[in-house]
Design goal:
28% of the residues lie in helices and 22% in strands. With 413 residues, the protein is of the alpha/beta class. It folds into 2 domains: 15-46 and 283-411, Lyase, Ornithine Decarboxylase, Chain A, domain 1; 49-281, TIM Barrel (Alpha-Beta Barrel), CATH 3.20.20. The two termini are 21 Å apart. Bound molecules: pyridoxal-5'-phosphate (PLP).
Length: 413
């Protein structure tokens, strides 16, 4: 148990900056040192209070929208449990994710399975758990549901390319809007129920314009399906994509969602709207702590070799194109351009090759902020450098202090 640090009050502004959203993840220097002394390094410190705060903030910005936390950015038992207690819904994409929510006692009717391409075993595992809503985007996938047509229903994923999003997820999945009616017709012929439409505008969306375009197009498709005498589409899944500030500020979530709310209000009243946020809930909820394990002077600069890097928690710099705010715990001393490298023998494993730092010593600690999403989840044990150990804070809302504990075995560590 660590002492509860004073909370800085959160300022609502028209942009979110990394500093503001760090609010709850702030640990004092002494607390960070104590964590490393107790649990070793590298660490990923997940703050469930911040998970709750992010969930509630997004829920307030999108009232009436059922938020299904997408497990992929941070598939962690403590995060699932705290969102379960918040009354959240869940978005699953693999059998591993099914197992994780099941282990946390999440009711299957609160879950949907949204991977557009599935093995038969994936479908069966999810059905056995009790999930009944799946996603498909092409005829072959729809045909897989013929044998399950009495137990499963589908959302059709529609493609809206998003060249301005940091990760354009419609490159790989989704049918063209003009193909939707034909697919519903095919499903009807096969006896498979299509319940609604879904889309994902791309992760870390830069502005809400793509959502507006997609909601408008889906609204038109819902009307066209009705006119064509096809079964009514009564679910619209607006996906994830909600942005967070890394090294650059982004729109506040309230400003971001305002035009989305206005567009959703034009949908017919019978349409239930759901969303699949991942990054927005997970990213600000964790910090990564690593240690300098060696240093070398090269070409007039200090290179610091950490025990975590691009093959570990910083994997998101490669896969997710994120640039995390990173700083040294040591602040005294003149700052010089320096290099922060990961521990592996690969020369690509450099976190930052031009960061201003005071001179560091072996054992000094480095803190990466905004590191809850697509970081630990995509980390590897390459070169036998183990993934960061997860430590969970404020697991229960009523925790009198900062409850810090080791990760449960069930979540893999
Ligand atoms: C189907 C699906 N839903 C939701 C998400 C979560 O998106 P985000 O983290 O941008 O909110 C993803 C991310 O890859 C996804 O593929």
């Amino acid at each position: 148990m660590l002492p509860r640090a004073a909370r800085r009050s959160s300022v609502v502004s028209s942009t979110q900056s990394a500093d503001l959203s760090l609010d709850a993840a702030v640990l004092s220097e002494a607390e960070i040192r104590e964590l490393v002394a107790r649990f070793g390094s590298p660490l990923l410190v997940v703050d469930c209070d911040q998970v709750r705060r992010q969930y509630r903030t997004l829920q307030a910005a999108l009232p009436g929208v059922d938020l299904h936390y997408a497990l992929k950015p941070l598939p962690h038992a403590a995060v699932v449990a705290c969102l379960r207690d918040e009354g959240a819904f869940f978005d699953l994409a693999t059998t591993g994710e099914v197992e994780l929510v099941k282990a946390q006692g999440v009711a299957p009717e609160r879950c949907i399975h949204t991977h557009p391409i599935k093995r038969d075993s994936d479908i069966r595992d999810a059905l056995r758990y009790g999930v009944t809503t799946f996603v498909a985007d092409n005829p072959e996938e729809i045909k897989k549901f013929v044998r399950y047509r009495k137990r499963a229903e589908l959302l059709l994923r529609v493609c809206f390319r998003s060249p301005t999003a940091v990760c354009d997820l419609s490159r790989k999945f989704g049918c063209e809007p003009r193909a939707v009616l034909e697919l519903i017709e095919l499903a009807r012929r096969l006896g498979v129920r299509v319940r609604g439409l879904s889309f994902h505008v791309g992760s870390q969306a830069t502005d809400p314009a793509k959502y507006i375009e997609a909601i408008r197009a889906c609204n038109d498709l819902i009307a066209e399906a009705l006119l064509a005498g096809l079964p009514a589409l009564d679910v619209l899944d607006i996906g994830g994509g909600f942005p967070v500030p890394y090294s650059e500020a982004v729109m506040s979530i309230e400003s971001f969602c305002r035009p989305i709310r206005a567009e959703l209000a034009r949908l017919p009243a019978h349409v239930r709207v759901i969303a699949e946020p991942g990054r927005f809930i997970a990213a600000p909820s964790a910090i990564a702590i690593s240690s300098v394990m060696g240093k070398a002077r090269r070409d007039g600069r200090w290179w610091y070799y950490l025990d975590d890097g691009l093959y570990g928690s910083y994997s998101g710099q490669l896969f997710d194109h994120a640039k995390y705010p990173v700083s040294a715990l040591r602040t005294e001393g003149e700052r010089h351009p320096s290099v922060l490298a990961g521990p592996t023998c690969d020369s690509i494993d450099v976190i930052d090759d031009n960061i201003l730092l005071p001179e560091l010593e072996v054992g000094d600690l480095i803190v990466g902020r905004m590191m809850g999403a697509y970081t630990w989840a995509s980390a590897t044990d390459f070169n036998f450098f183990k993934r960061a150990r997860v430590v969970v804070m404020n697991e229960h809302p009523a925790a009198a202090g900062r409850v810090v504990r080791l990760e449960r075995k069930a979540a893999g560590h």
